[in-house]
Amino acid sequence: MKHRLFPFEQSWLRQLQREWQNIQYQYDLPLAIPVLQISRSTTVFGSWDEKHRILSISSFLIQSHPWQITVQVLKHEIAHQCCSEMGAFHKFGEKAHGPGFQKACELLGVDPPFQRAHADTHEAIHQVMTGAHASQNSRILDKIRKLLQLGGSSNEHEAAAALAKATELMQQHSIELDQLDAQVGITGMVLQTGKQRLSAAAKAICGLLDRYFSVRVIIGLEYDPLTDKEYRTIQLYGTEEQVAIAEHCYHFLLERLDTLWLANKKKFPGSGRTGRKSFELGLLAGFAEKLEQQAGEAISRVQEQEQQASKALVHLEQRVDAYVQARHPKLQMQRRRRINIHCDAYNHAQQQGRDLDFNTPVKGGEVRMLN
Fold first, then answer.
1. Fewer CB within 10 Å of terminal CB in the chain, N or C?
2. Is residue 188 a contact partner of residue 222, using CB atoms and an 8 Å limit?
3. Do the beta carbons of residue 51 and residue 70 sit within 8 Å?
4. What are the distances in angstroms from CA 143 to CA 44, 139, 148, 149?
5. Where are the beta strands (DSSP E) in 240-366?
6. Band of residue 167 on the pLDDT scale cut at 50, 70, 90
7. What one-character DSSP code corresponds to residue 42?
8. Cα separation, 200 vs 266, whole angstroms
9. How many other C-beta atoms are found inside a 10 Å radius of the C-beta of residue 333?
10. 281 with 261: CB under 8 angstroms?
11. Cβ(325)–Cβ(218) under 8 Å?
């Protein structure tokens, strides 16, 4: 039954149209845009009416859950549209959620919890919101966390040794996981920044995580239906343990940048924003030097291991790449802009970055996404 939309629902409908068009572009779908509709259902979060070509999304879903959940439900319904209107899926001639629908979900990068019938949607959302699917009690994850907490020690050498050991354990665990189970879970996590533009330091942290912490990092945009604005997100992809450690490192580094700048800013009077930005980038550059040294040592250790172990790591990386490719098929790299640097602040912080140690984990409280 058609109803009059509230102004905020009209904004949501326009955003759903943009999301549909983006999905159609990303996956090269030979589909015409359907009639998009906002429903008031509190039990059916999404539906596809093949006869009238109406794709409906629940207003209750939108206002009660993060937008990433809405996009997953939207993709679920587009998969139904693919089965209705794309010849490649007609041959299956099947039930609504049969093999053809599963193939369409794979094409669109629909995450597994959202490939089921609507009766399972509440369970899928519960998994995403609580992280119930994650191996929070993993032996290796607990061990790495304990090692990183040693950074609370005033002995920087002890902290550096703990960090090096944690990195080594992550690399070894990646090998073990892939050798023991070819289907080890690849997952993703979305960190909400609440900002429309990321600072140079936040982007530099993303670069560190991508290069040294065995995760793929993508800076994206996510719509906020409550403010009708888009905000930057940081998306982490890898094994559950890798993603969990990378999340910890992200929040830890943000906290360290703020704390160390407050402790050192009086040394650079009048430098303002440029001074802070320079200090933060210098700190991260020094930290990168430490990680680069550790990475070189780790490569030497890996080369001493069996050739099969190296193949396992390559295979795991390929699977992570495939996972990311399914969700971002037309990913584009952006060219970095030149920035002004306060040399004294940068050089001073770079030395501190070389001595940076890990502190007690900072809780991010972010939504986990997805198994």
1. N
2. no
3. no
4. 42, 6, 9, 10
5. none
6. low
7. S
8. 21
9. 5
10. no
11. no
